[in-house]
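ugh finaly. both done.
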Amino acid sequence: MSDVMIKRALLSVSDKTGLAELGAALAARGVELVSTGGTAKALRDAGLAVMDISDLTGFPEMMDGRVKTLHPKVHGGLLAVRDNPEHAKAMAEHGIGAIDLVVVNLYPFAQTVAKGASRDEIIENIDIGGPSMVRSAAKNHAFVTILTDPADYPAFLAELEQKNGATGYDFRKLMAARAYAATASYDAMISQWFAFADQQQFFPETLAITAKRAEELRYGENPHQRAALYVPVGPHAKGIAQAEQLQGKELSYNNLSDADAALELVAEFRGQDPAVVIVKHANPCGVAQGASLLEAWQGALQCDDVSAFGGIVAVNVPLDGPTAEAICEIFTEVVVAPAADDDARAVFAKKKNLRLLITGDLPDPRRPGMLIKPITGGLLAQSRDNGAVLPADLKVVTKREPTAQELKDCLFAWTVARHVKSNAIVYAKDGITAGIGAGQMNRRDSSRIAALKAAEAAEKFGWARSRAVGSAVASDAFFPFADGLLAAAEAGATAVIQPGGSIRDDDVIAAADAHGLAMVFTGMRHFRH
């Protein structure tokens, strides 16, 4: 395909970023500018000569601007195959001039939804003429250049400069691909709004998903895998994908996945006492709250300092210098925080490979949403696990009721357990995890591993006894047999929190009573696979 000179351009944009500069550059090359409504006004205000679309078509803009570019003189000028004799004949017979460049970005549908506009205003911000022009121009990219994003204007102007006022086929083909992605994502947002917001269909018959690539990553879970980070197009919750990286080398696929797990857990403590979460391979290996962030760090680290090596740290309050110093005493991949003071930043600056991510806020752990997981031949979709358990929801099922401190420890352990891979067992005491057992094929082994972690910590730090002694133990799902609970009793736990619901609940309750344990049922399970 040959280069195509730009002689006539049609401009109709909602986002007028860079419009005046683009128009001036085109005008300087003698390109005729055709435009609509507010775009034409903006170009004229910049001192540029513009032909109104109504002068091109011979019809006025009508119906409150709903009908202005839906006309044969527009789409004929876009869709005509220039080297086709029949097309050329039709253009000549009907006075249709070729349009070589289309610059269009669409009505701000997502922004209109996000500001809480009325249904009528939202409907009026569904663009019709814009996507039609974009698709026509993109289809005929052999002859027409389409620009849908102001970010592409500099590359376009560089192309014009290099090719003396023309564009090459490769450039037009690239812009066409981006154009179809733009209309696809636009239609997907509209589809999502109709399904979820307008008609309250949580699982619509057709699920339209659209996302924009934020960056390509070095590799995936393993070096032989490719990977990229995408962010949803349209309104969405902010999180790790939007965090500001202040320092450190490029984030990897595993870094982002683990940092997200750490942020989701530490967000459970939003607005509470200082909390620290340490994550390794998507599982927390230590969680603690304290009177200070440094105290919380020390408690979290002591749960399993071996696994913490090379881990991800997340905190729920701004980082301070002393805590940053302590974190840097071990190798840490990523630190996630809502903010960091100057002292903390100065400390981390000495560790050039450590990544510091600033989120600005913590996500709402109770927010709604959908989780999607690919399987062979399809996708699984489910609502987020945003269920909450309050003290009033708990049912005491043993002869002994938990003390106030045991109840507090139960709820802390339960909060952590919901973020641990199943089967999950968490021992906690005084706002500190004593031991975590994750991802085992049976609950008894998870319980034993968690107890072993607690015993190892006691031996390493010279404590008189394991923190599991006098602790509360949380199980993410019911105990199917009494063996898992008995393992917790052997470790020294005095209180248990679990969903209940096993056909052997009576046996488990009897075992708890026999060992003097207090046990509460939540009625809510938190499997995490």
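ok and the 2nd:
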Amino acid sequence: MNVLAKPGQAAEDEVSTARLKLPLFDEQRGLAGPITRRAQRRSLLIWSAAMLLGLVLCQFGPGAFWSGFGLGLFFPGAGFLYSANPILFVLTPIIFIVSLLMWLLIGAFVAPVLVWLGSAVLAGILAKSGHWDFAQYVVPLLTLGLISLRLLGGSKRLKQQLAVVHKLNRHLMTVDAPAPSSRYEVAEPLTDTDLGALRFTLDLALQPLDQFDGFTTIDQFREAAWRYQLYAIANALSVLRTTRLPAFDGYVDQAQRNAITKMTDLRVWKYWFWENLWGNGRINPDPMVRENIMISGWFGLTLGAHQVSSGDKRFDAPGSLPFRWSNRKTYFYDYPKIVNTLRRNFKKGAMCLFPCEPNWVFAYCNEQGIAGLKLFDQMHGTDHAASLMPLFRQRLEQEFTRADGGQNLIYANRVGFALGGGGLKIIAGNLWMRNMFAPDLAARGWEQVRREFFKYGEQEIVPMGKGDGLDAGNYRKSEDGRAFYPLLMVVAQEMGDREVYEFARKRYDALPAENVEGALRYPGSTTANLTAAMARFASPGAWYRMANIALPKIWREGPRLSHVPYPQVLVALAVSDGRVLELELVPGCEPGRFPLCFSGLRPGQAYRCDADDQVLVATTGGTGEIQLDLKHRQRVHLIPVQ
């Protein structure tokens, strides 16, 4: 007996047939946007002033020290040519590059400053023991030559990039894309493989709050940090509840709340004290008050997704998320306070987007933040995201989109240069979030990916490009797609491209998985595994609907499965039409007789379980319980008795 709509049938009646006109790229732009150019001009003026000072010190300074120091201001290690130390002259730029990586990776802005100024001072000291006077002319000329080559190369690169985007625009003018459906659907029940991914996710989340067994543990500064694994756990379970388990609470709800609560563990967020110290020169451990969108932005999306999927507003309570630094200092946050922190930081600067690590502005993190505002607005009737959206979109297009249509992932707001590219992961990686607040930009990005990276007619993807094989969750490269395919699965699923999703899923499922008591772990980092799980649990446009459309009322009302023992009973489907509860249950270990607990029942109403014709009468609190013999995957209905 199937008293509910079949899985895959819409929960609402209207079907969207709207099409999205894809926006074109700006063909009149330069290599950088106006704010980036302004920062570059400021940096160039500071550098020019330093070189002018260096030239004055070199020509008129009272002794060899000042000449060596002055030439050292031209570029890192330049003064060593004057002090007759060619090895240091060559080695220092390499050390400077390492210091730039430290700045990028852990926010240590002080590192390149110390290398540059420290090498200038050391060059001056060494010059007292002997020097090469010709360096006074070679260093300025070499610097001028390098700048000229850079300018000539930039002009050539811009011409090439605009030629690429011109062809891309001609293509975009001929196509459109379907608008995301606003219709919630009950997806097909979780398969056995999906349930293996679910058990992997739940086993991580349901362990004691102070334990992180099974998490990738390398550092807490970059992408392998625990925080990203916690976000991924909660997000995967949130999307699962909106596609297959809208009428189940139980262990899934507990796992979501555990992942959120673990974010307040000091080991997760104390890294910010050090980054704020050596990146901003501030002694303030507060993880969200200023910058650090990799907590506030990502956490905002995770909290919003949990609230939308569960209806649980416990984290709206003032101070419900205490970040305890010491016995004497605790930073009390909650979802509304985090949202207000995001709004304040978005509004603070002209760029709108704000930093993760000190100085470094990541587009990916900021899109998490604006998506989190969309989720908050959807649940609270506010317009925080809408008020910021015009400027936010403008900055994405002007400052974080390259002249060839590629993406600038990272922007250094103190010096004005950007890092990015046109690889598949770079262009596609953030589209599942972008679909939440700018579906037209997401659709354009996916069309760009399909055009540039897919071989039509062969159902194949162009081999992974530079960086596409890197598993950011453990910093290891692999050619088997262990981190590449999960990301492709997530984006293709959200964009409704079933062909690409199935291609990536089959490739990923072909990898050798380890089965640990029913939990499937694939090669790669914990984050890569959780990303694949999130893709499996989702459905086309699921994240768009979470951010823009309230869940159907009938999914919030009526009978609910409130508790089953884990891992003895796995819930593959749980949905209510407001009157009847439909379940699909699978024994997680051995077959047996297990309790099923219900809530949301009409007090005093009798309900029949069609699996074995048991009848329960709801308590005055609207709860009830039966014992079910579960021997295999089974469809179960709880039906009110007339």
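summary for the 2nd one i guess: The chain has three domains: 34-165, 191-547, 554-640.
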